[in-house]
From TrEMBL:
<keyword id="KW-0479">Metal-binding</keyword>
<dbReference type="GO" id="GO:0008168">
    <property type="term" value="F:methyltransferase activity"/>
</dbReference>
<comment type="pathway">
    <text>Cofactor biosynthesis; (R)-pantothenate biosynthesis; (R)-pantoate from 3-methyl-2-oxobutanoate: step 1/2.</text>
</comment>
<keyword id="KW-0963">Cytoplasm</keyword>
<dbReference type="InterPro" id="IPR003700">
    <property type="entry name" value="Pantoate_hydroxy_MeTrfase"/>
</dbReference>
<protein>
    <recommendedName>
        <fullName>3-methyl-2-oxobutanoate hydroxymethyltransferase</fullName>
        <ecNumber>2.1.2.11</ecNumber>
    </recommendedName>
</protein>
<feature type="binding site">
    <location>
        <position position="94"/>
    </location>
    <ligand>
        <name>3-methyl-2-oxobutanoate</name>
    </ligand>
</feature>
<feature type="active site" description="Proton acceptor">
    <location>
        <position position="192"/>
    </location>
</feature>
<comment type="function">
    <text>Catalyzes the reversible reaction in which hydroxymethyl group from 5,10-methylenetetrahydrofolate is transferred onto alpha-ketoisovalerate to form ketopantoate.</text>
</comment>
<keyword id="KW-0489">Methyltransferase</keyword>
<feature type="binding site">
    <location>
        <position position="94"/>
    </location>
    <ligand>
        <name>Mg(2+)</name>
    </ligand>
</feature>
<keyword id="KW-0460">Magnesium</keyword>
<keyword id="KW-0808">Transferase</keyword>
<feature type="binding site">
    <location>
        <position position="125"/>
    </location>
    <ligand>
        <name>Mg(2+)</name>
    </ligand>
</feature>
<keyword id="KW-0566">Pantothenate biosynthesis</keyword>
<feature type="binding site">
    <location>
        <position position="55"/>
    </location>
    <ligand>
        <name>Mg(2+)</name>
    </ligand>
</feature>
<dbReference type="GO" id="GO:0032259">
    <property type="term" value="P:methylation"/>
</dbReference>
Amino acid sequence: MEHDKNSTPSAKPVNIAELRAMRDRGEKIASLTCYDASFAMVQDRAGVDFMLIGDSLGMVIHGGNTTTPVSVDDIVYHSRCVAPHLKRAFLVADLPFLSYATLDRALDSSQRLMQQGGAKMVKLEGGREQASIVEYLAVRGVPVCAHLGLQPQFVHKMGAFKVQGRDDAAAEAMIHDAHVLAEAGADMLLLECIPSELGRRITEASPVPVIGIGAGPHVDGQILVMHDILHISPMVTLGRTPRFVKNFMHGAADIESAFRAYVQDVKSGAYPAPVHCF
């Protein structure tokens, strides 16, 4: 499908209030990971609502098998590459493995991501056990996105990258975690690799926007790893494409067209299709 490169979304910068307004009016939020200036400018022009400096860079940029070796320095560096080139998109940055293990470390890491990296929100993994960290950051002016479901930083604890929340007990625990984290001050939730029905239940109960990656169509928005939708990530090239990934380069004239197709499909509800869901 052709996408008009001359049709540019409103240049008004996206912020937390606008993300909430999008949720309230039923407009789906389209987001992608990003790690450098060139892709940041193209994504911004294509209408991506927010970009995540994900610790996924440990896999798609550094070529590792997990995200755990990624450091705060790494995230700051890539955030600093992206932030100056965003006219509209909101910038979120991952707090990497163990960088928020204590209150003081969480605050110091968040300060660096926001002051040195230019991020406007930080993301951390974990359930209700992170509530004190979320609250500590939130009351000090740090916007927080809480990440539930499959948590890549916990892969050595979980044993594998696999769907979470399949049984009733696990689903109820995740619903409770989402409530506790929002009450603690999280401004956004991210759900990864969970059944669509659980994604719906959490979204309907959540007072804040809910973004999904492999969490079904009922969440408030979608996020994917940029390299996955361009069909160039290590997992894709090794033939281990996650079920929730769609190749948006297929049929696209160029990379910007692929990004525009992704944004359009998220906004229209065409993505994710049932084939992408659990």
